[in-house]
Amino acid sequence: MTPEPFFALATVLFSLGIVGIISRRNLFVIYMSIELMLSSVNLILAVFSRLHGDMNGSVIALLMIAVIAAEAALFLAIIVGLYRQRRTLDSDVFSKLSQRDTL
User: Fold this and answer.
1) Domain 4-102 is found in CATH 1.10.287.3510
2) Could you say which of 12, 26, 53, 96 has the lowest number of CB atoms within 10 Å?
């Protein structure tokens, strides 16, 4: 099978992620768009790994999945904390995430 369909799928996924980041204000939707972009990068790494016949790209993709899982836990904890503080997930409300903003 040729890699072109996988490259096209990864391009579409990455483009949808960019559109989600640019057009949405909800922090959770922005986070999911970032995750979509990271998944498309993992797909590209796996395809290149398969094309070249080595496992380096697949190993890096697996390591990225582990890092993404840890990042997901941190980001979701931050989202819950921000929601408890302000009762909204609108990114315009959180223009300055600093201690000076709460004083």
Assistant:
1) yes
2) 53
